[in-house]
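Continuing the batch. This is chain 6 of the set; chains 1 through 5 are on the previous pages. Same settings as before, nothing changed between runs. Recording input and output for traceability.
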Amino acid sequence: MLSVLRNRTYRHLLAAQVAALTGTGLATIALGLLAFDLAQDAAALVLGTVLTIKMVAYVTVAPLAAAFAERVDRRKMLVVLDIVRAAVAVFLPFVTEVWQVYVLIFILQSASAGFTPAFQATIPDVLTDEQDYTKALSLSRLAYDMESVLSPSLAAALLTIVSFDNLFWGTALGFVASALLVVSVALPSPMPTRPRGIYDRTTRGIRIYLNTPRLRALLALTWTAAALSAMVIVNTVVIVRTDMGLPESAVALALAGFGGGSMLAAITLPSLLNRFRDRSVMLFGATTGTIFMAMAAYLFANFPMTLPTLALIWACVGFGYSSTLTPSGRLLSRSAKPEDRPAVFAAQFTLSHLCWLMLYPLAGWLMTTKGTAVTLTWMTIAAFAGLVIVSVLWPEKSPEGTAGKDASKP
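Output for chain 6:
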């Protein structure tokens, strides 16, 4: 897998991703502490609003950013968006009102909504060999999983010597480092062959996406993955602390199971995708996660749950989750011409976060009103519904080729 790091451009881009993720991880910890400092008992409401603002920015801004991405140099765009994110992080330690947090977070997440799809669309242009690109996708997944483990540890260490608001300076440094790494390499920036109007540029990614059967199937798979992850992310703390009566450290261990399963999938995916079709691997992952979520529902309804059992089930769900989503970049890059890739990646970014925008509150509401066993059952049903749709939209004998007739429709 590490052989792909011999490519200097990709090596710098991966380092930029790691730097930005580290900064984002520090900001996540600092925002929670800032919300408590400003709102005290209403901190949970503030954080919930922040997460909603994040998702709204992702859903609404990404297509607009993609419309401008094809008109500007991609490297300059990425650097400018990193600088915007760094500037917002610098302002956050000085806020004194909750509404100021909301405004700054909207600006920060809007910049991320423009940066992330354009960054993701650049990788297949840099690594044109599909095996190398597959390795890059796995390394990217590993970077996300490692960040979720290491950033809280780094934040905890820093908080022993500095106050929480200083973590935002670490966030700014992460984004500045990302900008410097991006500007240090030359990036491909494919341009459209003919001028396009603003409506065409804004909606093109969504139209290509929805006109491509395997990408419609990818959206259904994303729905399944979102149902699985929403249950884990939103409700693990309630399951461990309330249902099982265990301390806070047990929450971290349970979530580590999910992250560990995801990392295991990322490590094994390059070899799996060399031997099996994308469809087979992604369906296997989605089915595995759904089966183990159903198993958790059955166990909670009939037996006392232990921490090792929960961590093991979450590890299997994490393996399925990562196996479902990590290969998605291969489908997206195959299904669009190089100049359309930012728009198609932005469409996936928008539609996938729309899934989470619906399923996060559903998972929380069900847990609050119906309890763990019922919530697990309904989230399993939601995940299974995505699998049924995939079987209809993406038949087994469908072609795997690169950007075909269906992908090129406007």
